[in-house]
Amino acid sequence: MRILHQDRFKGEIKLMVEVSDDLWHLYNIVRPGDLVFASTYRRDEAKSDKIRAERTEKKRMTLGIRVEKMEFHEYDGRLRILGVIEDGPQDIGSYHTLSMEEGEWITVAKVHWTDADLDRVRRSVDDAKKPNIVFVSLENDEATIAVLRQYGLKNLATITGPTGGKMYEQKDTGESYYDEIISKIKQAITPDVPLVILGPGFAKETLLALGKQKEPELFRKVFVYHTGQAGMQGIHELMKRGIGGEVLKGSRVAEEMNLVEKVLEEVAKDGPVAYGPKQVADAVSAGAVEVLLIIDTLIREKGMERVMKGTEQARGTVVVVSEHHEGGKKLEALGGLAALLRYKMSDT
Predict the structure, then answer these.
(1) Averaged pLDDT, groups of 10, the chain, 348 residues long
(2) Least CB-packed of 16, 74, 139, 173 within 10 Å?
(3) pTM for the whole thing?
(4) Which domains does the chain possess?
């Protein structure tokens, strides 16, 4: 994301969407009640003597929308913002949906920008400079290729090896299995993107050797780790255990997962922690929250703005956790809301 303009007095920030991950950041920045401006298409209804208006071609125009609802579609890289038109050349008071994609700008106007909102904007600018990470988690008969986004892990492909499926029955060597993996990596990776190869056996070393021989540029920036499992479970294990710190350092997903694990550790030993709406609200009221964890699906719920603002006023930190990775699912099981406390509260 790139900041094009900022007006502190009007509470406006104009942003350029540069990569698909920026749409995820916007999904967490924009909330119902905000006023957003963007360039969009809308049909101009031509008036005539006929009973029904004539339908004309859609025209490009800038509209200001008072947000009511948002939808983030991770698979096709699209953010939809639905609301009522408050500013524009026509149809004031009518509903319109903005469909945001890469390469488009948006101006977000808020009555109050929370510290969490501003931190998300700053982080989106920094994240745009960081490469994504491609994972290959494999064993002898199956490989999973996934990419780390700012909102979580996305499974790109699962490849079955020589003994695992019909697609390899006609192939008499195991090398074709690795050729297929290398081909998929070539489709997923771009220059300077770290490649992480992991798994429980020796298949990762075989892939590394063959990859350096056939595609040396792709395998120039490679990290290899041993894990107890392959597949997506192996990638989650890698991130949860903190191994691979040199490549995962600075990853938002790794940070969120580590914080959720810390919450679970404190819960297990009855430490200074609160979870669930009531316990967390009580801790916020007491000024005891050091780190507030809230799942992204809750931030637009009634009362959550007050909880986040109360945490920040007491000099606590708010961390919005993505629902799209394992840490988010674990936080959801705790009610979607948890807090690491400065001290243990007797009623938590």
Answers:
(1) 91 90 87 94 63 68 94 80 94 93 93 85 77 88 88 85 49 69 89 87 94 90 92 87 65 82 94 94 95 88 86 91 83 94 80
(2) 173
(3) 0.61
(4) 2-127 (2.30.30.870), 133-250 (3.30.420.60), 254-341 (3.30.1330.30)
